[in-house]
Amino acid sequence: MATTGWNAHHIPDQSGRTAVVTGANSGIGLVTARELARRGATVVLACRSESRGTEAAGLIRRHIPGAKVRFTALDLADLGSVRRFAETFPYERLDLLVNNAGVMALPYGRTADGFETQFGVNHLGHFALTGLLTPRLLATPGARVVTVSSGLHALADLDMGDLNSERRYRRWIAYGRSKTANLLFTHELARRLKAAGSDIVAAAAHPGYAATNLQTAGVRMEGRHGAERIVALGNRLIAQPAEAGALPTLYAATARGVRPDSFTGPKYLLWRGAPAPSWRAKWTLDDVAGERLWIASEQLTGVTYEGLKDR
Questions:
Q1: Catalytic residue selected from 175, 209, 251, 305
Q2: What's domain 13-298's architecture?
Q3: Residue ranges of domains in the chain
Q4: Which InterPro entries does this UniProt record tie to the protein (predicted)?
Q5: CA 229 – CA 226 distance, rounded (Å)
Q6: Phi-psi region for residue 110, left (φ > 0), alpha (ψ -120 to 50) or beta?
Q7: pLDDT digits (tens, 9 = 90+) for 130-152
Q8: 175 is catalytic
């Protein structure tokens, strides 16, 4: 995995390829969608907000005349919305699914289907989306699924007896668990794809500390204006820009030689720098935990993966 100096200029030609990027209206999702479109991909911006998604598509077209981008509504906090997205997906092929959207350290809440919000959006919504789009992925030679996790997965392993944090809710622990779930999902998906003889690459990435709206959403929801100002200051002074934060995702999505179940992040201190292999907690490579999470996710979402074998 040679990544020295890798940047957006190294993205191979994406002409003829179709990509879906969730949460593509801002931050690293918008940069990811823009750079894929710049290289010729047809990019679906899968976003909850129609106004912000449409605005993002227009922004990309203004920067890149002739860019093939379209907004399609997707609310990962509502499995009905996830199913509608998959049922109306207009393309026969799907070369790249980037599970990017996420929420961080929110006050306790529940999705439309009753799941704790961070686990429901960050993991279960993407689990369902990937499963419903699997037939398109399997029909596309060389397809990839890239799921965006976080270095903060190290905050917590999963509690399989309390996936929805019903016994006790601590926002940062719940966030860490949801990001652990992203990595365990990638681990088990890669195993099942291999067992099915598929050449789809399931990989994960994280942006390090990148300046996006993710950090301020939780404190803003609670009206904690002082904390919001402190977080915003940290974004300005310490964080790397979204353009840099998107590079690990773009590398995992497009670079040659990306291995299944790899985890790509910034080179230096899990924080900043060119894409490189990233440290991950040992519990994210646990085969038994990966299978247990997969079975629980199928039961919670009602989504099974057509064409993939279990153990």
A1: 175
A2: 3-Layer(aba) Sandwich (3.40)
A3: 13-298
A4: NAD(P)-bd_dom_sf (IPR036291), SDR_fam (IPR002347)
A5: 5
A6: beta
A7: 999 999 999 999 999 999 999 99
A8: yes
